[in-house]
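TA notes, week 10

Several of you asked for a full example with nothing omitted. So below is the full record: C-alpha cells for the whole chain, then the designed sequence directly under it. When grading your own attempts, check the secondary structure regions first.
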C-alpha cells in the first residue's frame, strides 16, 4: 500500500516568496466542496447502500463527508435515498427548508429520482416535484461507487459555484418555482 498522501491542488493564482494570491470564490468553493456534511434522508433499500458507502471499505471520510448530520441545521448536502411516499413529502420539504444556505441535494436511486418501480397513487414520482435537485444518481439500488460518483459530481458543482449565486435572481426564481420564497 502506498503511503503517499495526495494534497488537494491549490486554485489558480499568483504565487511568490511568502505569498499566494487567488480569488475568494475559488478558496471558498474548494473548502466547501471538500467538507460537505450529509443529511441522510433514507427511507428504504437505497439507504443500505449509503451505509456501505460510509463504512470502511468505501470510506466516505476520504471525501471529507464522514460527518452525517440528522439535524438540518448542521448539514449542507441533503441525500434522499429511498421511496418517498406522498405522506412523507411534506416532511422532506420541511427538512429541506430548515437547511441553511448554501444547501445542495443529491437524489439517490430510482425511487428518489422518479418513483422507481412504484408508479402508484401513494408514491411521489421524483423528489424534484417538491424540492430542487442538484445531482441524480440512477440505479435500483445504485452501488456505493455510484453514490461516491454522485458526491464527486456535486463536489465539482460546489467548487465552481460563485458565492453570489444564492442571492441571484435566477436562484430566487428557482426556489419560487417550488413555492419557496426567500427574502
Ligand atoms: S431505487 Fe430500488 S433499491 Fe432504491 S429504494 Fe427504490 S426500490 Fe429500493
Amino acid at each position: 500500500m502506498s503511503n503517499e498522501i495526495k494534497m488537494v491542488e491549490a486554485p489558480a493564482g499568483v504565487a511568490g516568496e511568502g505569498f499566494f494570491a487567488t480569488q475568494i470564490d475559488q478558496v471558498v468553493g474548494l473548502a466547501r466542496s471538500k467538507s460537505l456534511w450529509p443529511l441522510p434522508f433514507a427511507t428504504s433499500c437505497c439507504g443500505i447502500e449509503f451505509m456501505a458507502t460510509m463504512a470502511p471499505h468505501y470510506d466516505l471520510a476520504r471525501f471529507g463527508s464522514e460527518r452525517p448530520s440528522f439535524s438540518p441545521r448542521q448539514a449542507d448536502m441533503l441525500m434522499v435515498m429511498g421511496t418517498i411516499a406522498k405522506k412523507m413529502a411534506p416532511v422532506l420539504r420541511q427538512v429541506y427548508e430548515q437547511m441553511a444556505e448554501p444547501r445542495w441535494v443529491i437524489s439517490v436511486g430510482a425511487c428518489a429520482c422518479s418513483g422507481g418501480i412504484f408508479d402508484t397513487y401513494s408514491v411521489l414520482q421524483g423528489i424534484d416535484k417538491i424540492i430542487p435537485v442538484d445531482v441524480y444518481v440512477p440505479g435500483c439500488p445504485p452501488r456505493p461507487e455510484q453514490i461516491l460518483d454522485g458526491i464527486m459530481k456535486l463536489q465539482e458543482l460546489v467548487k465552481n459555484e460563485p458565492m453570489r449565486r444564492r442571492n441571484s435572481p435566477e436562484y430566487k426564481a428557482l426556489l419560487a418555482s417550488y413555492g419557496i420564497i426567500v427574502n
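The chain has a mean pLDDT of 94. Use that as a sanity check on your answer.
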